Amino acid sequence: MNLYTRTGDAGQTSIIGGRVDKDDARIEAYGTIDELNSFVGQAVSLMDTNSGIFADMKEELLQIQHELFDCGSDLAYARLNEDRYKVGAELAERLETWIDRLEQNNPPLEKFILPGGTSLAAILHVCRTVCRRAERRAVTLRHQHEVNPEVLTYLNRLSDYFFAAARTANARMHVQDIEYVRSAKVFGRKS
Q: By 3-state DSSP, what share of the chain in percent is helix, strand and coil, each rounded to 5?
């Protein structure tokens, strides 16, 4: 099997049910999700070097990688196809459970923080920001075509997960998050 097909040499690519230009909003949306998935893979690789303290998060991130493929697949349909969608409401609900679990052990948060700290936290912040861009691209696509709305919900919740995971990565390595010095107190703990 050849990895190259030459079918995209003129600037078009196949989607489920048709062909579009490679700069089509649909391609931008699921291409950004693919980019995000690569950064998640980098985060997973960094977890291998930390003697198992991130085993729970590694398992979650591996599951997220599969779900990001599902998101891309759901956005790749040329026409609405609700019967074949892979992303449902339960995925975002499960992310909320994971976020709540991670945040229980994170230090209190009152102000905005700078992305960074450990290498793992830094790449998880990159995941968060690329996820936000993927969400924006999916919203742009929604203005032009019908899309699975659960993908938008999932991406929105996933960026929150990456924020919590980045804070957890720092906390587990005993590295403090650095507060943005001009930030007002914008966060409060739920009681």
A: 60, 5, 35
* Secondary structure class of 90 (helix, strand, coil): helix
Domains annotated for the chain, with CATH where assigned, are: 20-172 (1.20.1200.10)
Q: Which tens digits make up the pLDDT trace of 54-76?
A: 999 999 999 999 999 999 999 99
Please write the tens of the pLDDT for every residue from 105-134.
999 999 999 999 999 999 999 999 999 999
Ordered DSSP codes for 142-173: HHHS---HHHHHHHHHHHHHHHHHHHHHHHHT
Q: Give the Cα separation of 98 and 161 in Å (integer).
A: 7
Tokens, residue 24: 């089509």
Q: Which residues contact 146 (CB under 8 A, 6 or more apart)?
A: 80
